[in-house]
Specification:
There is one protein chain. This protein has five helices and ten strands. The strands form three sheets. The chain has a six-stranded parallel sheet with strand order 3-4-5-6-8-10, with no helix packed on it. A two-stranded antiparallel sheet has the order 1-2. A two-stranded parallel ribbon has the order 7-9. The protein has a single domain, classed as Leucine-rich repeat, LRR (right-handed beta-alpha superhelix). Helix 4 packs across helix 5. The protein is α/β, with parallel strands linked by helices. The N terminus is likely disordered.
């Protein structure tokens, strides 16, 4: 997936230039988002003499998908979401095809509108409450077994949950508050493939009971 490169331009009084590429050498077992990783995950130009902290605060798009992260971290996919507080204006985050196990530390990027977490190791939909402006959520190819945690994501328009590794002895479950929130916004595009029929039935039942 290509990164949408519409970040804010560098200050007019500055001459734009690119930051020199840097590589991270994480400790064994440590594959986290570092400052160096952030600097190499954006196409945003930096102004001449611009302070690092100011530059990071202007970033709105980050491409930390698997191919990128493995290159930056010398073969290790990202496992932990952190240090996004350095990019408070972040709107689009590509973290697909990594090894992220927990959705966390996103309260520091409340302006996020797109979150791409497909192809990770997630088991729960959690810590999404602060993302009031989230419009698109990609969670395909994980191990999620319950639709939940979206009650306060009132601007959500698209949700992708296809190909979850649900154990054969379990059923995909639905949180009541989340179902109510989604039912009220019935125009939501919900794509779940194998469990689509279950979700559709749950929507119909919930709408009927709410009538």
């Amino acid at each position: 997936m290509q990164q949408n490169n519409d970040e804010l331009p560098a200050d007019d009084e500055h001459t734009s230039k690119r930051l020199e590429p840097q590589r991270v050498s994480p400790r064994d077992g440590e594959r986290e988002i570092t400052v160096e990783t952030l600097l190499n995950a954006t196409k945003l130009s930096v102004g001449k003499n611009e302070h690092l902290s100011h530059y990071l605060k202007r970033i709105t798009h980050l491409a930390l998908n698997g191919d990128v992260s493995k290159s930056l971290l010398k073969g290790g996919a990202i496992r932990k979401i952190q240090n996004l507080h350095l990019c408070p204006k972040l709107k689009v985050l590509y973290l697909y095809d990594n090894e992220v196990e927990v959705i966390e530390n996103l309260e520091v990027v409340p302006e996020l509108t797109q979150l791409h977490l497909q192809g990770n190791c997630l088991r729960r939909m959690e810590n999404l409450t602060p993302l009031h402006h989230l419009e698109k959520l990609y969670l395909e190819k994980n191990a999620i077994t319950r639709l939940e945690g979206l009650r306060d994501c009132l601007e959500l328009q698209e949700l992708y949950l296809a190909n979850q590794a649900v154990p054969t002895d379990r059923f995909f479950a639905f949180e009541e508050d989340t179902m109510h929130s989604l039912a009220v916004r019935f125009s939501l595009l919900l794509i779940i493939d194998e469990i689509h029929c279950l979700v559709t039935a749950a929507f119909v039942n919930h709408l009927a009971s709410s009538a």
